[in-house]
Amino acid sequence: MTAALELCAVRKQFGATEIIRGIDLSIPKGERHALIGPNGAGKSTTFNLISGRSTPSSGSVKLNGVEIGGLPPYAVNRLGLSRSFQITNIFHRLSVFENLRCAVLWSLGYRYSFWHRLAALRDARERADAVLERIGLQRVRDTQAGLLTYAEQRALEIGITIASGADVILLDEPTAGMSRSETDHAVELIRTVTEGKTLVMVEHDMGVVFDLADRISVLVYGEIIATGTPDAIRNDSTVQEAYLGTTLDTDQAGGAH
Question: Quick check: is 175 in a domain?
């Protein structure tokens, strides 16, 4: 079966500095996969290489068997991959509903169609309202997005990420800055909205990682040093030493960001 996402010998240099040093990774369709590692390990750079924000210096990046390395972000998105960012990326002056409606337009065929009145697009309205319900923000449907709480803005961004119907979702630190109760809610939201999709996430909260991920890859100094199930990673002495310098304790690491 063709992998949802496959990286083969991927390298990335900035000048003489090599940040990503030959990553090989295959993620099957429908898997929830976490990418963890210490600060500066290259996690965000890897996400940028996958999503088109950066071009690999060498190697191959494939989405559902199609080479995407070097394609611009919009082209990668149209092939079925969507991502969120560490810093919340929404239209602050638009309402929650309007943010979601913007996100569904391309997938519904309203591309460079300037003659359509947005208010008359019933399918876009229905799709946006359906996503709104899935992320639990119906009560703030008409609220300006910039006035939402931080946790609500992160939920909205997750909604925007899934609104296009992409089957591969990249979430970059989706629970960063949240309280424990907000994190618990976000985990259930992510679990629900990514059901049946392929999820790849960068996350520092080990409680979230061990709760959500089917498999985990550990990135250190631009190289993947281990890939395995949560139990295998938790008990890997090499990972413990390289990542935390101690035992991977989900309770101890759960609040670390």
Answer: no
